[in-house]
């Protein structure tokens, strides 16, 4: 295992970087000295603003557009990042969609909704990991982190399409970590629940906060700090860490 304490030569690719968690994580990893590849789908202006903020921190940063519901666009994203910035040593598969929340009956989820959710939340994360890992192997160092969800543990408030797409990430963590730990690559997931300032909140923030034992919504910065811990800690792998205000006991 290669011990790394200086991250100034490490490139982090963060999907869904213009959302609350992604944005905060970009800033947090830049604080370690990482260069940042900012992925976005439609929020081009916010992506440019984030890139400017990252460059002010003294790191290299570029933004890349891709719709992760398309596997061809996932491949294009990886190709463009490598050509412009190099190979990612850190991959945070953060992007996700819900399409619809508050599902009460399985009949409300048609197969198009199910397939789109799985492609964006799980399939694209699998493919991007598949594309990034070979170079991590060559360098005997890498960090793969998935943004799962407490819904993967308990079902959650969104629906079966979302919960199943997130629980699938848990299985990826467990398989990948066992096969790549000896090659210097750690694989983990953070599983948030009900985070403020994100587009995935399934309802009114005040009502949702009442469902959480600590009584408040989580902050994007709290998830970002968990990701930083996973990046810095080489002895940590094969873990799905809930950051959920006490909703699910681990």
Automatic annotation (TrEMBL):
Domain of life: Eukaryota
CDD domains: SDR_c
Reactions performed catalytically: a (3R)-hydroxyacyl-[ACP] + NADP(+) = a 3-oxoacyl-[ACP] + NADPH + H(+)
PROSITE patterns: ADH_SHORT
Molecular-function GO term, any one: 3-oxoacyl-[acyl-carrier-protein] reductase (NADPH) activity
Swiss-Prot/TrEMBL keywords: NADP, Oxidoreductase
Keyword Lipid metabolism set for record: no
GO biological process, one term: monocarboxylic acid metabolic process
Pfam family, one: adh_short
InterPro entries per the UniProt record, alphabetical: NAD(P)-bd_dom_sf, Sc_DH/Rdtase_CS, SDR, SDR_fam
E.C. numbers: 1.1.1.100
Family: Belongs to the short-chain dehydrogenases/reductases (SDR) family.
Name this protein carries in UniProt: 3-oxoacyl-[acyl-carrier-protein] reductase
Organism of this sequence: Saitoella complicata (strain BCRC 22490 / CBS 7301 / JCM 7358 / NBRC 10748 / NRRL Y-17804)
Lineage, highest ranks first: Eukaryota, Fungi, Dikarya, Ascomycota, Taphrinomycotina
């Amino acid at each position: 295992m290669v011990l790394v304490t200086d991250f100034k030569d490490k490139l982090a690719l963060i999907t869904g970087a213009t959302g609350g968690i992604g944005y905060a994580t970009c800033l947090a990893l830049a604080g370690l000295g990482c260069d940042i590849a900012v992925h976005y789908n439609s929020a081009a202006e916010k992506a440019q603003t984030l890139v400017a903020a990252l460059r002010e921190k003294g790191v290299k940063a570029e933004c890349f557009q891709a719709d992760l519901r398309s596997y061809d666009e996932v491949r294009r994203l990886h190709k463009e990042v490598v050509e412009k910035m190099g190979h990612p040593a850190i991959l945070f598969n953060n992007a996700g969609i819900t399409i619809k929340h508050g599902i009460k009956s399985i009949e409300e989820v048609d197969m198009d909704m199910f397939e789109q959710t799985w492609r964006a939340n799980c399939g694209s994360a699998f493919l991007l990991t598949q594309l990034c890992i070979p170079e991590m192997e060559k360098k005997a160092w890498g960090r793969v982190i998935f943004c799962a969800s407490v819904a993967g543990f308990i079902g959650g408030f969104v629906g079966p399409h979302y919960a199943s797409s997130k629980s699938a990430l848990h299985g990826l963590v467990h398989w990948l970590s066992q096969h790549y730990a000896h090659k210097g690559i750690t694989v983990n997931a953070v599983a948030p629940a009900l985070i403020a300032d994100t587009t995935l909140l399934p309802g009114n923030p005040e009502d949702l906060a009442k469902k959480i034992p600590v009584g408040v919504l989580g902050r994007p910065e709290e998830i970002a700090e968990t990701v930083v811990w996973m990046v810095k800690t080489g002895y940590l792998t094969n873990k799905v860490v809930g950051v959920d205000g006490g909703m699910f006991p681990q």
